[in-house]
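Our consortium's second objective concerns turning raw sequence data into structural hypotheses that experimental partners can test. To show how far this objective has progressed, the report includes one record in full. It was chosen at random from the queue rather than selected for favorable results. The single chain below, 215 residues long, was entered without modification.
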Amino acid sequence: MASTTEPQHREEQEATETTAAEDEDTGAQVAPIVKLQEVAVSTGEENEDVLLDLKAKLYRFDKEGNQWKERGVGTVKLLKHKETSKVRLVMRQSKTLKICANHLVLPSISIQEHAGNDKSCVWHATDFADGELKEELFCIRFPSVDNCKTFKEKIKEVAQSEENKDGETEEATSTANLLEKLSVEESKEQEEKKEAPAEDKKEENTKKESPVDEK
């Protein structure tokens, strides 16, 4: 019986010593084989101010399958460029940061509630998320009614602002064209006035010469 217990006791003792040796801190420092350098990651949003930042789930309508397909869950932003003042809508997936929506907010954009769901809204846009321009029908769903309302109001506000800018640009262009037209007409009138005295003198000379010819 003793012979059977003794080997088992030795095995337990050796296992304890091995564990203690593994847990012992030798103080040695192991240098990494490959040193990784920090790389600056550019998102393309450095020159833009954030007007809106909300969490949501995005869908796009698949015309071929005639159904809605999930585009991603993440953060939707409205970004205003610091130089051009153009505003675009950008949405990235939360884990991969992959872009699932990327388009300008134009005056023509029309956003409305989706099928009576006050947490969702739909709109058409010319999107560039896949690297090429595509006409898309989007549907976005928010966790709360308030977020959805805020999103819609901000989109409408930006669209109205862009429309006002376009109106100002058209007005400025038409004014410039009118001023140019007036200046051209004015210069023509001045040229006609200069030419008029010369023609009058020519007629006077003709009249003076006429009696001589008669004689």
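The partners drew two points from this record. The helical segments are 2-23, 145-214. Strands lie at 48-62, 67-81, 87-93, 99-104, 111-114, 117-127, 134-141. Both points have been shared with the crystallography group to help prioritize constructs.
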